[in-house]
Amino acid sequence: RKAKCSVVTTYCGHGIGTLFHTAPTIPHYAGNKAKGKLEVGHIFTIEPMINLGTSSDLTWPDKWTSVTADGKRSSQFEHTMLVTENGVELLTARPGQPTDRMVPWDP
Questions:
Q1: What is the distance between the alpha carbons of residues 62 and 11, in angstroms, rounded to a whole number?
Q2: Is 0.85 topped by the overall pTM?
Q3: CB 27 within 8 A of CB 9
Q4: How far apart are CA 75 and CA 49, in angstroms?
């Protein structure tokens, strides 16, 4: 909010199991009503979409492409995480990066 950015609330992270997109739903925004508890062995994604303008989005006719309703820039990323005894393991860490936390991207 301080940077005048918003987060799309249409999409959420999700669990990964025998089905690719499965419970639990992992919202990426404050004030969500998600319930549940992650336990050791659970695998889930976080994949927020951060926008320079409105949080409202539109989906193109291809039913895959999502754009901001106001046409401003948006960025989306995804990470997959495993709940461990000591916290989480970042399964999608870049080579040479730590797996116990996300680090800022430095090109």
A1: 17
A2: no
A3: yes
A4: 6
Whether residue 24 is preceded by a cis peptide bond, meaning omega within 30 degrees of 0, is yes
* Sequence-distant (≥ 6) Cβ neighbours of residue 60 within 8 angstroms: 66, 67
Residues 49, 50, 56, 60, CA torsion sign: negative
pLDDT tens digits, residue range 80-101? 999 999 999 999 998 998 998 8
- CA pair distance 52, 73, nearest whole angstrom: 6
Nearby residues of 36 by Cβ (< 8 Å), 6 or more positions away: 23, 24
For 103, the token pair is: 């680090």
Q: How far is CA 38 from the centre of its chain?
A: 16
CA distance 71 to 55: 11
